[in-house]
Amino acid sequence: MSDFRLLMIGAMYENGGNTTHRLLDGHPALHVYPFESQVGTRHVSDGLSSMFPLKYRWPEFLLDASPYQDYKAIIDEEGKVRSRTPHVSKFRHEPFDMNDDERCDIYCRIIGEIGRSRAHNMEAFFRATHEAWKDENSSGQEEVYVGYSPIITVDTARILEDLPRAHVLHVVRNPWSAYADTKKRPVPLDLAGYIMRWNLNQHYALLERERFPDRVHIVRTEEVMADPVGTLGAVLERIGLSSNQSLAKPSWNGKVLEEVYPWGTIRKATPEANLETAHELSEEEREEVGQRAWQYLAVFGYERFLDSGTVEKAEAFS
After folding, report:
1. In whole angstroms, how far apart are CA 63 and each of 90, 163, 307, 308?
2. pLDDT at residue 1 above 80?
3. Which of 219, 259, 262, 280 could serve as 180's disulfide partner, Cβ 3.0–4.6 Å?
4. How far is CA 275 from CA 13, 20, 309, in A?
5. What residue numbers bound the domain in which 60 lies?
6. Strand stretches in the chain, DSSP E
7. Domain boundary among 135, 161, 186
8. Tens of pLDDT along 286-306?
9. Residues in Cβ contact with 231 at an 8 Å cutoff, skipping those fewer than 6 apart
């Protein structure tokens, strides 16, 4: 049984997962992964494989693979691109001293010490990343590793069953602002396809919190934007850590960011900008989003969001 402590963040696209990830970055007790921790492999194959990119899933490994082959199977696109071909990385403007080959060697060494399994492979991946990251702004007080992968909430049960000391933090944002931001992608999902996936992420978050009430935590992006220290500090206290004023500002490797982009698409993480984003949609789009997401609007307190930009007391947070 692994004693590894991981806080894994999950969120539907443009729901504030990257913003939450970057707000946790400066906390002295957290080893925060530098980019999206895209731990999936091409060996994932289930009913959700055609709906979500494999890089965002909790991984599967071949039974007869070696530790080296396991490491190479982990997609980790953002991390490997920044390390191996920094000139084409969207993060090339920030210094990042990590050699991917060295990380692979460290990973294989750790697996040699603790043994090979999906749980140990994930432990080795996160530990090796922070050991190989030479210019990480480390406090020396880190207790918990933090990863973020969009939509990985759908794999919550696998994460928690593999890692008995892990927690999952799911982030939800009102579907109007979320869809308005996803429309800004070069090749966005259509409205029906996007809201179907948004709904599915909320289904898994609520289901798994019912099954693992002490280890699955849900926050609304709207509350994170309005009070990041209070909202995220409360989550950290539930996993045995203290709150910290560092939660007030998003950062990368301890450097405060003026905007989360390019780590995420939310440029201004403010309640005012969030409401303005929702109203970028046409009246017809706003109505259809509400129709397709109807079963979760009351659950998450979003029924009157378009009127004021505020969220209300809701079943999911009672």
Report:
1. 35, 19, 54, 53
2. no
3. 280
4. 17, 18, 5
5. 35-135
6. 6-11, 30-32, 144-148, 167-172, 216-220, 251-252, 255-256
7. 135
8. 999 999 999 999 999 999 999
9. 219, 223, 224
